[in-house]
Amino acid sequence: MKMAEIRKLTPDERLDKLLQLRKTLMETRFKRVAGQADKTHEIREMRRVIARIKTLLSASRKAAASEKPDQGS
Fold it and tell me: Residue 60 sits in which domain range?
């Protein structure tokens, strides 16, 4: 999944995709340890897509925080 495809998703869809990928990654790791994994190269790609999603989520949180006026001072 490319960054452009991830940007098209809504924030809720990004979170859903993140959870789905984490679950799939865990299952694939277990299969690899058990010697049943067919596509071990997908582990690397899943980790990278997870990082891309987390990067966008973090950037959106920082942007939202910077737009808020400081009420405390």
Answer: 3-64
pLDDT in tens, the chain (73 residues): 899 999 999 999 999 999 999 999 999 999 999 999 788 899 999 999 999 999 999 998 898 888 877 665 5
Enter the pTM of the model: 0.82
Q: How many domains does the chain have?
A: 1
Q: 59, exposed or middle or buried, with CB in 10 Å at 0-12, 13-18, 19+?
A: exposed
What CATH number is given to the structural domain containing 26?
A: 1.10.287.310
C-alpha to C-alpha distance for 16 and 50, rounded to whole angstroms: 11
CA-CA-CA-CA torsion sign (8, 14, 16, 22): positive
